[in-house]
Amino acid sequence: MANILIIDDEQAIRAALKDILEHEQHTVEEAADGAAGVAAAKKGAFDLVLCDIKMPKMDGLEVLEKLQAFNDELPVVMISGHGTIDTAVDALKKGAFDFIQKPPDLNRILTSVRNALDRGDLVKETQVLRQKVQKTKGGKHAMIGESKALEQIRDMIAKVAPSDARVLVTGGNGSGKELVARAIHEQSARKDQPFIEVNCAAIPGELIESELFGHMKGAFTSAIKDRKGKFELADGGTLFLDEIGDMSLAAQAKVLRALQENRITRVGGDKDITVDVRVVAATNKDLKQEIAEGRFREDLYHRLSVIPIHVPSLSERTEDIPLLAGHFIGQVCAEQGIAPKKIADKAVKELQKLPWTGNVRELRNVIERLVILSDKEITEADVKAYAVPKG
Q1: Are residues 279 and 227 in the same domain?
Q2: Last residue of a domain, which of 125, 152, 187?
Q3: Between the N and C ends of the chain, which has fewer C-beta atoms within 10 Å?
C-alpha cells in the first residue's frame, strides 16, 4: 500500500488521520509543523502528503510550494479548519491535488486519498512508458517495442543510415515500413534535407511518371505550367517510394535510369536534370514472385535492394503489444482531450491473443475504439466486446 506523510500541528488530528489510513493498510509518518514536514518529505519516498494550512512558523501553502519545488508530481491534499472558497482555490492553483475542510469526513478523506494515489500511479506508469519509448532509436518516428526483432531492425538502421546505400523495406500493410524509412532518414547526414514520400499504389498509372519526374507546360491537357516531380523535390534528401511493387513497368524503367545515372527528365521535356537523392523503397509484395510473373524488373529489384530490411508482423512480436498499447492510449487520450486511462493486465493479454492482420495500424485503431468506449480502465471484457467489430 501507500506511504503517506501527515503534516499538522494538532496532535489529535494527526492521530485520527493515522488511525483511518493505517486501517486501510497504508504506512503513515507524522510531522508536527511545516518545516519538519518538508524535511521528512525530502528524506522519504512518499506517495501522498496530507497537509494542514494553518500552522505556526510555516503555513501549509508555503509547505506546498516547497514540496512542489523539489517534486511537482507528489500529490498533496490540503486540510483546513478555516477554509474558504478563496483559500481552496489558491491551494489548487498552487498545485494541491484536493482541499478538505476540518473536521475531516471519513468518506471524503478516503475518496480523496484513493483518487490522489490513483493519479500518482498513473504518473509513475507514464514516466516508465516515456523512459521506455525514449530508449528506442529514431527520434520522433521511433518504432515502439522491445522485442528482439525490433532491436535487430534498429541495429540495422544504425549501421545503414550514415551511408547512401539504397534500402528495400518489406513487410505487411500497417507493420511500420514508413517508420523504418523515416528512421533511416533521421539518422543520416541528409536529416536536414527533404524527406519526400510517394505512395505508388495511390497514383494512377498514367500520372506516376509526372508525379515522380515532373512535367513541362503543355506536356498533356492539364499541364498548365512547369512542375517539379518528387525526385527534384527530394534533391539532397531522401525519396521514399512506398508500395514500389505497384509501379507500372514503364515507370520502373525510368526509375531505373534515374538510379543508374542520377538524372531525370520531366514529362514533355528534353533536358536532363541532375539529382542527388537517396532512395528507400517499400513493398508488401513478394518482388521475386512479381519478377517471375513479369510484373517487376529484376534489374530494378537489384538496384533497390542493396540493403533489405524485413519488418515482422505484429503477430510475430506480440511481446511489444503492452508498450504499444500504452503508447497509443496516451496518444489517443491527448488527441481526444480526455483523462488518461489505464489498461488492465488481463486486457493486454487478451489483445495479445488476437491475429492482428492489419498489424500496428490495426492495433492503433482498436486502442482508439477501446479508449472511447471503455470507462476509467480498459478491461478484459472491453477487449472481448469491442476489439473485433461485430457483424
Answers
A1: yes
A2: 125
A3: C
Contact 269, 312 (CB under 8 A): no
Phi and psi angles of residue 361, each rounded to the nearest 5 degrees, phi first: -60, -40
* Structural domains of the chain, count: 3
The string of pLDDT tens digits covering residues 279-318 is: 999 999 999 999 999 999 999 999 999 999 999 999 999 9
pLDDT at 388: 84
Q: What digits encode the pLDDT tens for the residues 317-334?
A: 999 999 999 999 999 998
Q: Please give the single-letter amino acid code of residue 251.
A: A
Tell me: cis bond preceding 75? Omega within 30 of 0 counts.
Answer: no
Contact yes or no for 346/379 (Cβ under 8 A): yes
Partners of residue 273 on adjacent β-strands: 264
Give the residue among 120, 108, 119 at the shortest CA–CA distance from 79: 108
CA–CA gap between residue 198 and residue 181 (Å, rounded): 12
Question: Do 276 and 342 share a domain, yes or no?
Answer: no
Residue 121 — pLDDT band, cuts 50, 70, 90? low
Rounded CA-CA distance 99/370 in Å is: 33
Beta-strand pair 307-310/195-199: unpaired
Rg (CA), the chain: 30
Q: What is the pLDDT of residue 272?
A: 93
Residue-wise pLDDT tens digits, 161-201: 999 999 999 999 999 999 999 999 999 999 999 999 999 99
Residues forming beta bridges with residue 48, ordered by sequence position: 4
Q: From the centroid of its chain, how far is CA 360?
A: 12
Element (H, E) at 42: helix 34-43
